[in-house]
Design brief:
The chain is α+β, with helices and mostly antiparallel strands and 650 residues long. It is built from 25 helices and 19 strands.
């Protein structure tokens, strides 16, 4: 998460006066608020806050209009570290709650349930020139148009010791917003209207010039070269060469998958090296869970050593698929082991009793980030009472004191296998077997600890990605059990979330004292990701039923997400209430975009079925962003994959 204070220029534009704000307090509710009845674990986390939270609903905005209040919108997700920090610092605080309840209608949104809401207001925030992240904190007018915002704010003002400048805290920002609203509602409303127009114009401008760009193999090839140029040659992963690749690193699996697939079609020594360096270093660092398998969300620094510890289903899924693609052309025993441990992690930590996978694991345990995954010397002594085992662990996993977070040790792969064999004076196979026994002991010890919170909702789209990742990994590793797990997941998702009338729902989970049920009409990324999963199962198994289900799902996607005019597909279904901004998601970051993945899946489905309508729609989605494929290829990796399938027979 990237967190930035709200910039002074936003307040200046609104004429906000932070001094002399007048406010009074209301009694905070003593009992759980209405979020206690929600299905989302993230929303229920806030049920005991003294803030009078509303879920996203027409009733909340009707109340804002009736009472003439601004809306404070907070968007986050269960495994978000800074979301939990702001909840502890501000939303549990009675002073903050009293001011919010008196002056605002407060709405909480789980971005994993409503990615369309999150996306629209994130675009608005970035239109203001503020870098995005979570929690996303926005102020809206009663018509749901954005006015100003930021991400994480500390409760109180902070002074920068170096510059002596003041960073406004949440309470100061709340008072400033309320002061502006009381003094000049007309100006605030005008600012909201202007921001909505600017955000819409930004979306429209991105499509200008697309008709001038040819959709051909050269477009995909130039995109691959641009992405390769952004890979850190020393530690791998994507970064900014002008900044010497310093700063946080996300795995960005869609980009890795694109390059690995291109490498299969058109081998390149430099691209192969860049990918190998990336996977080698990613799998050696602390961002890969060396003890339990699977991937943490990102590294806080260049070398992949110190991660942000949340685990997301979409990362496990897409990195499995990317590893399988790279391992197909450049096999590596280390990647074999990483794939196996990632699948074991999925089965142990994410698998739900009724089939399918949970969405995420939180970064924090008992209020401490990474506590479930890191070690003290005393914990190592208890887990490995034999000196030989403990000595091997310290050497092999880098428990030397250098790799730490707040005094707790982070496991890395400190020695390559050849060096480990040399250090232990054992043949490589024996050294690896001994290390595996030590790893198992550490894992058994870790499993007895308190666990991070697990968000148990089943999401159609993220499970679709898991289906694809497991199927491709099973194919590459020749493991039918993984392919069977992919098929079981597909059955669970289709049974729970795809209706006989041809509608996909996004979420399957249970509210308190209720049984699980399907909720919320699916967004475009759900259809596209599940379509990718079903089609991948067909490509791996050649079973007709997966192609048949993929075709039914594609027809439903086009029915519900085709716009009345314009190119591409809508993020929100065309029969759902419209947000202030109708987005057509095409940005591939850590998660795949709806339009990019839909284009790639439809291009492949067209080949599988011979249906030209699917190819035409894939071309339509790609045409929507063709200018961006030329000018900003790194942000549209899956659309580039679609181009490859559209212009080649391979």
């Amino acid at each position: 998460m990237t967190h930035h204070p709200i910039t002074g220029k936003i307040f200046t534009a609104l004429g906000l006066c932070l001094a002399g704000a007048v406010f009074s307090f209301a009694q905070a509710p003593a009992k759980p608020n209405r979020l206690a009845l929600e299905s989302s674990p993230y929303l229920r986390l806030h049920a005991d806050n003294p803030v009078d939270w509303w879920p996203w609903s027409p009733e909340a905005f009707q109340k804002a209009k009736k009472e003439g209040k601004l809306v404070f919108l907070s968007i986050g997700y269960s495994s978000c570290h800074w979301c939990h920090v702001m909840e502890r610092e501000s939303f549990r605080d009675s002073t903050v709650a009293e001011f919010l309840n008196r002056h605002f209608i407060c709405i909480k949104v789980d971005r994993e349930e409503r990615p369309d809401v999150d996306q629209a207001y994130m675009i608005a925030l970035e239109t203001l020139g503020v870098s995005g992240g979570w929690p996303l904190s926005m102020f809206l007018n009663p018509d749901a148009k954005p006015i100003a915002g930021g991400t994480y704010w500390p409760k109180d003002d902070k002074i920068n010791d170096k510059t002596e400048s003041k960073r406004p805290g949440f309470l100061t920002i709340l008072k400033g917003m309320q002061n502006a609203w009381e003094k000049d509602q007309t100006s605030v409303q005008q600012a909201a209207d202007a921001l909505a127009r600017r955000a819409s114009l930004a979306l429209l401008t991105s499509e200008l010039g697309n008709a001038l760009v040819n959709i051909d193999k050269k477009l995909a090839d130039s995109g691959a070269k641009a992405l390769e140029a952004q890979i850190d040659p020393e530690h791998g992963g994507f970064g900014n060469p002008s900044r010497a690749f310093k700063g946080p690193k996300f795995p960005l699996a869609p980009r890795l998958l694109f390059l690995a697939r291109v490498e299969q079609l058109d081998p390149s020594p430099s691209r192969a090296t860049a990918l190998t360096v990336t996977f080698d270093h990613l799998l050696q660092g602390g961002t890969f869970d060396q003890i339990g398998g699977g991937f943490h969300r990102y590294s806080t620094e260049r070398t992949w050593t110190v991660p942000h510890f949340e685990k997301m289903l979409y990362d496990q899924a897409m990195l499995l698929e990317a590893m399988a693609a790279h391992n197909k052309t450049h096999p590596s025993p280390a990647t074999d082991r990483a794939m196996r441990r990632t699948v074991e992690s999925l089965q142990r930590e994410f698998l739900l009793p009724g089939g399918g996978f949970a969405s995420s694991l939180a970064a924090d345990t008992d209020g401490t980030e990474g506590k479930s995954y890191t070690w003290t010397e005393q914990e190592l002594d208890l887990a490995l009472p034999e000196n030989a085992d403990r000595g091997l662990a310290k050497v092999a996993f880098g428990f030397s004191g250098r790799n730490q977070l707040d005094g707790r040790l982070i496991a890395t792969e400190a020695l390559p296998l050849a060096k480990l064999a040399e250090t232990t004076k054992l043949p490589q196979a024996e050294a690896l077997d001994r290390l595996e026994k030590v790893r198992t002991k550490l894992l058994l010890s870790r499993e007895r600890r308190n666990k991070p919170e697990r968000d148990t909702k089943l999401l159609a789209g993220w499970n679709g990605l898991a289906i694809a990742g497991l199927a491709r990994a099973g194919q590459q590793q020749n493991d039918p059990a993984w392919i069977k797990l992919a098929a079981n997941t597909a059955d669970a998702v289709m049974n729970h979330l795809f209706t006989p009338t041809g509608r996909l729902y996004r979420v399957y989970d249970a509210a308190p004292q209720k049984g699980p049920q399907a909720r919320l009409p699916a967004c475009l990324d759900d259809y596209a990701s599940l379509l990718h999963g079903l089609l991948t199962l067909h490509e791996v198994t050649a079973e007709p039923r997966w192609k048949e289900q993929a075709t039914r799902l594609a027809d439903a996607m086009l029915k519900w997400h085709k716009p009345e005019r314009g190119k591409g597909l809508l993020t929100t279904a065309n029969d759902q209430p419209k947000l202030f901004l109708q987005t057509r998601d095409s940005y591939d970051g850590s998660q795949p975009s709806g339009n990019g993945l839909a284009a790639w899946a439809l291009a492949r489905l067209a080949k599988a079925t011979g249906n030209p309508a699917f190819k035409n729609q894939a071309m339509d989605c790609v045409s929507m962003v063709s200018g961006n494929l030329q000018n900003d290829p790194e942000s549209h990796a899956l659309s580039l994959l679609a181009v490859n399938d559209l212009v080649t027979d391979k």
